[in-house]
Each structure stands twice: as structure tokens, then as C-alpha cells.
Amino acid sequence: MSKILVIAEHRRNDLRPVSLELIGAANGLKKSADDKVLVAVIGSQADAFVPALSVNGVDELVVVKGPSADFDPDVFEASVSALIAAHNPAVVLLPHSVDSLGYASSLASKAGYGFATDVYIVEYQGDELVATRGGYNQKVNVEVDFPGKSTVVLTIRPSVFKPLDGAGSPAVSHMDAPSVQSRSQNKDYVEVGGGNDIDITTVDFIMSIGRGIGEETNVEQFRELADEAGATLCCSRPIADAGWLPKSRQVGQSGKVVGSCKLYVAMGISGSIQHMAGMKHVPTIIAVNTDPGASIFTIAKYGIVADIFDIEEELKAQLAA
Amino acid sequence: MMFGSADALVQLAIKSRDPYVAAAVHELATGITKLELEALICGTRRTALAIARWEHTPASVLTALAGVHDEAIELRLDKNPGTSSSVLSGLYEEARSKDKAGLTKLIAQHLNSGTEVLRRIALHANDSECLLALSKNPAANAKVLAELSERASGSDIAVAIHKNIAQNASASAELLTRIFDASDVYTQAAILGHANCLAWLIAKAAASEEVLMMRVLARNRRVSKESLQRYAACEDAGVRAGVAANALTPVALFRHLIKDKSELVRREVASRVDLSEEHIEALSRDDDIWVRQRIARSPTTSLDVLYRLAVDAVADVRRAVARNSMSTVHLLNMLAEDKNAWVRSGVAYQANASQRILMKLADDKDVDVLSGVANNPNTPQSILKELVSSNEADVRRGVILNKSAARNTLLPLLEDPYYLHRVLLVHNPHLQAQDKWSLRDDPDFQVRFSVYRWAANICLKMPDTFLVTK
Questions:
Q1: How far apart are CA B169 and CA B191, in angstroms?
Q2: CA distances from A63 to A9, A103, A186 (A)
């Protein structure tokens, strides 16, 4: 029997969806019915997450009572280290997030565990664990194996694995976080770059505009359309540089990678390499452009060679009907 | 030390052993030096492939790469928007002789493809994908499209071809009229929206009850006032919105449409620039955010109404006032203190924002506000110099894009860590030649290419001019 340990992640009293995705990934790694998936949640209010984590696929839930409700890298590193010592898991799955960046590498390095970050495929090939991550700026898939490592720590890319359906009734146990001297202190919570705006890295439906919209006064009609269609309006760099949409809405190398997006409608975006770096992974891309040779069509699942204003007008009429 | 002449620049490029630098100056070279540059560009197959695909590669280099006769390179040349008509013509001959339908399709849709090549594709290509791609290409003239239509008639793809032709700007009035009757309602609607559609066809179609056609015709400036009157009473909101957007719609119809049950229609009315004070007043109190937003943005809205909308509960409406070209300094000063950063950002980007307002906004912490201040030509140089050292790349880029940023302000940015910023500086008119030339050995290939391309363009425009060698 081997164990797979999942570390749940929460922020400002909300469980992050990636925690449930990791449970899905962990269940995919079970080699036999005897294998167990353990989920640990760390924090002073960790008990509050027990109902949300009592889902199908969780065999045991460990509530680690920490000194603070907020994330602290030293507390998390010491807690996960103690959990590994207590349960001896073969695989430890952490979300690939700003939190795990703060302690995962240190945890693995100090104990000599196998380690890979930003993993989007993980599987057993025979008895050998193989993790796949991007290399050379996501241009190639790199398969990583861990010869001789009895424990492997992996940070998993969000929005890749599917959560399992249904409720569960895991055994719940408690432990106290080890006492450590914390080197950091939470002073304030600041939403990076977004202010009050939506975090475009977490949304699943994006409509994005580029130079093709021509003038600033045309932006609003696409905001209306995005609102009516239930999409989040984003943009390419020139639009944000002109101040037509907030910087927090900019997709691409200078902006953000829309990691959770499932449907991306590119309106009047030619598809520079810099823009595509932020969205080319999206499973369904619909591109609208008057130029049939536009680069965006090389990655689009559906392409419409047309004027974006004609499409916008017709979509609005269809939505109103 | 700077280069002295075109020959000196080419020699420097050869000495650099850099394929991108070689591509940048290729157009200047002749004879053996040109061959030396081409040897660098094609030094490895991987480099040649990358340069063949790169959107910034000069046309002369693409022409040279066509001579390599490598199928993978040819595929990239077919896709590259910079590939010239003559190269595409040669590639078409090759694709045709080897029966490569995929390559022919790329040539059929390429905007630089010549008329003769496109005509031959229309007459001889057998692959339906090629013919469909051709029917969408605006580079295909009226004659080519007519020949294509003739050839496609009766075939399985005739409907799809005619649908594309109906949206192709090159289609003639005669061809559009010919395919109208045999087309489905979608194609007919597209034909009615085409700039070359004949007036009598529009007049004839105006009686139609098809919603799709009415939506198109309601926006058409060639439709009669009687038809607009009928469309204004149509049950479909898209049709009524079309009437509201039509510049020829008589004022009398507005009274009815201002109170339309669909916000889609009221938004279109609010976008008009010929509204009376009475109409603006009514629409400025509409329940729909986007109706009020459009009124707040309109240059015809009075200051009284703008002041009221400047304290609207919705930030998007207040932001629209901040972006209104008629907003006064007093109004902008008020909005510069708005609690919402996106509203303050609207002020920061405003051409009417005074130096005093911009200095106040320079103390803001929000990246959009600071980017606006950095972008605004009214911002004092002293503030721009401070923003150059911002930790936010977006703010520093704002200074680079600022039309008033002086050379001394920009100089520290030559060492900016973001390569795109250094590329933008090569194109900045306020920097001197020596400043740009200092980036010639930049670690990023795009920056090096930009510097040498800039220098090559000077040589091409003024062949006898020697740049200062210091």
C-alpha cells in the first residue's frame, strides 16, 4: 500500500478550487485499491474546510492546527515535513501557486525528495513515476522521472486535473503544526495588479480585443457584449498601453497567462508571439479577424474571417432574441 | 563607434556572425557580401526556418530564402505576411508542379498574391479548400471572383463560395446581383450589406420580412425613410437597434426609440451625435448602465449633465465622463479624487488633464493611474524622470510611449530589463542615433535586429549620408 498526500490551499477563508483538482490527480495515481489519498489542510481555521474537503476520493483528512489563518511558508514547510515523516507518502501534491513557490523547493531540497514544479501530467509508467512539465518557455514537454526517490514532491498546475464528483466521508484526524520561528509576517492583503478588478487568471471564459477595435469609443460595445455573453473582457498589450482597459486585463508576455480559461474569443487580435504566450494553451480558441493569414488562426480551434463589428452586432442581436 | 556608410554597416553585420543582424541589412548588400549575409541567415536550417516564419523578416530576405528550395521553408514563406507577390508566384509554380494543395491554399488566401496567380488558382485548382480560401481573399479582383463563381456553379461548394464572395470587398455589383436570387437568406443578407450592392436590389429587398435581412437593411444608409419607419416598429430588437444606429433615421423616430423596451436599442440611440438636449437629458437618467455610459462619453452632452454623471453610482459611467473630450479641468480635478482607480486612470490618460492634476495623480499607487500619468504628454519631465525608475514595467513603458518624453528622461531606459522596451526605444524619435546604436550588441536578437534595421533604413532613404562615427 502506498500513500499520496495532497496539501489543500486556501486564501482569505476560501478553499482554492485547485485543492479539489489535486484530489482528482491523486486518485489517478492510485496503483491499487489499497492505495490511500490523504489530504491535509493547514491553518488556525483549518477545521472550517473539513466539509468542503470531504469529497469522493479522499481516504483521510488531516487538519493541521497552525498559529495563523494566513499562509506562512515556514509553518507550511514544517507541517508538510512532519506529515511526510508521519505518513511516509510516495507522492506529495501541492498546488503550483505563489504559496508553494515559498516553501516547496526548500522542503524537497532539505530532505532530498524528488521534485518537479508546474507539472501538468503525472502518471506511473510501470513502477516509475513520471511527471511532465514545460521546458524552454513551454515549447517542449519535459518528462521527469525520479530514480531512487521514495518520496516525490510535485507542484501541480491549476485547472489541468478534474475534481471528482460526489461527496465522501473520510476519516478526520488532527495534529498541531510544529512550532517554528516564522521569518515572515502578514501585514496586509493586496490583490496584485488587479485592485478591485477580476483576476483573469481564474476565469474560464474570456473575450479579448486587440488593435482591430480601432478606437477607444468602440471598447464599450465589446464590454457590453462580454457582459451579456458572460465573458470577461481582456485585451492585447496595445489596448492596455493606450489605457483603454486596465493592465490587469492584459493577456500575454507583458500581461498575464490565463491559466484557467477554457474558452477564449479573440476579437481583432492578429496573434503576436507575445500575446499567444498568455493564451495558446486554452482548449477552445475562437478567432475573429479580417486577415485570413493572421497568426491567431494557427492556434484557433474555430476561425472566422470577418469584421469583428459585424460579429459583435449579430451576437448582440442573437443574445437579445 | 558608429558605422559610416551602407557598406560599413553590411561589413559590421557580417563581422557580428548574427543571422538576425544579417537579415536586417540584407537589402543593402550586393554581390559577394549579399551571399555572405545569406550564408549567415541560412547557417543552420533551424535559423533559416525561424527567419522564414518571423513576421519582421524583410521581403528581400524572404525572397532569398525562396531560393533554398526546402519544403518546410516554403511552407513558412507561404504563411508569412511579408512574402512578396513575385516569391508567391514562384512558390505557386512549385506547389502546382508537385500537386501540393496545402501550399496552394496558403497562396490562395495570401493578401500579396498577384492577380494572375489567383486567376490560375480559380481556373485550375481542384481542391475545394483552395477555392474556398480564394473566395475570401480581397486580393482576388472582381474578374477572378466572377470566374471562380462561374466554375463553382452547380458544384457542392457553390453555396459556400457564394457566401464568401458576398462578403468579399472586391465582388462586383454585377456578380452580387447574379448570385442573389439563387442564394440562401444569410448570403442575401451579406449581399445587401455589401458596399457594391445595387440600389434597386436594396429597394426590392426592403419589402422582405426576413429578420436577418431587415437587420442589415435597417443599418443601411441607402434604405428609404418609409422602410426605416416600418423597421422601427419591428418586433426584433436587432432590427430596431439598426434603425437607431442609422445616421439617416429621422429625428421623429427617436422619441419612440428613446423609450424602447430593449436596452440594445436605447444604447444605439445614446451613441448618436445628433441628439437634442431633451433626448440627452432623458437618456442620462436611463436605468441601463451602458445607456448612461454612452451619454457620459458623448461630446454633445452638456456640462450640467456631465457633472451629474460624474457622481453616478456606477464607476463605468464616471470613467466615461473622465474620458469625455469636453470635460473641463475642474471636472477632471474632481474625478482625479474618485475612489475608483479605473476612473482616476481615465483622468490620467486625458489630453485635457492639467500638469497640476497629473502631479497629484503621480502620487497614486495604482498601476493604471501611474501608466496614464507616464503616457500623458502634459506630464512634467520631472515626474516622468521619477516614473522611469518604477518597479512596474507597464509604467516605464508608459514613459517610453509618451510623445513628450525628452532624451534625458529616456536614456536610463536603454538599460531596461524588458527587451520590448529596448525595441520600442530604437523607434523613439527623441533619442539620438548614438543612443540607439549603443544597443547594437544587446543580448536580445529582436533588439539587435531593430537597431540594424533602423540603421539600414537610414541608408536606404539617404544612400549618400554618412552617419557620425564617434
A1: 10
A2: 12, 19, 22
Pick from A259, A54, A230, A76: nearest CA to A161: A259
Q: Could you give the 3-state DSSP secondary structure of residue B237? A: helix
Q: How far is CA A253 from the centre of its chain?
A: 17
Q: What is the pTM of this model?
A: 0.74
- Tell me the average pLDDT across A193-205: 75
Residue type, B411: L
A314: confidence class by pLDDT, cuts 50, 70, 90? confident
ipTM: 0.77
- In angstroms, rounded to a whole number, what is the distance separating the alpha carbons of residues B61 and B49? 12
pLDDT class of A194 with cuts at 50, 70, 90 = very low
* Per-residue pLDDT reduced to its tens digit, A269-282: 999 888 998 898 88
Set of chain B residues whose Cβ sits within 8 Å of the Cβ of A293: 79, 81, 109-111
| For A228, nearest residue in chain B (alpha carbons) | B264
Closest CA to B86 of B63, B105, B108: B63
User: How far is B241 from B218, CA to CA, in rounded Å?
Assistant: 8
Q: In this structure, are strands A36-43 and A3-7 parallel, antiparallel, or unpaired?
A: parallel
Q: How far is CA B428 from CA A151, A154, B380, B446, in A?
A: 54, 46, 19, 16
Distance CA B55, CA A313 (A): 31
Residue of B76, B264, B317 to mutate when probing chain A, most A C-beta within 10 A: B264
- Count Cα atoms within 13 angstroms, Cβ side, for B254: 23
Chain A, 301 to 320: residues with Cβ < 8 Å from chain B are 305-306, 310, 313-314, 316-318, 320
**Residue length of chain A:** 321
Which of chain A's residues have a Cβ under 8 Å away from the Cβ of B421?
none
CB nearest A317 (choices: B237, B341, B346): B237
Helix (H, G, I), strand (E, B) or coil at B79: helix
Q: Contact A220/B401, CB-based, under 8 Å?
A: no
Question: Hey, are the CB atoms on A247 and B367 less than 8 Å from each other?
Answer: yes
Query: For chain B, what's the residue count?
Result: 470
Q: What is the mean pLDDT of chain A?
A: 91
- Segment A21-41 shows an average pLDDT of 94
Interface A–B counts its CB contacts (< 8 A) at 91
Centroid of chain to Cα B150? 34
A1 interface with B at CB cutoff 8 Å: no
Pair type for strands A14-15 and A10-11: antiparallel
Closest CA to B405 of B427, B380, B386, B423: B380
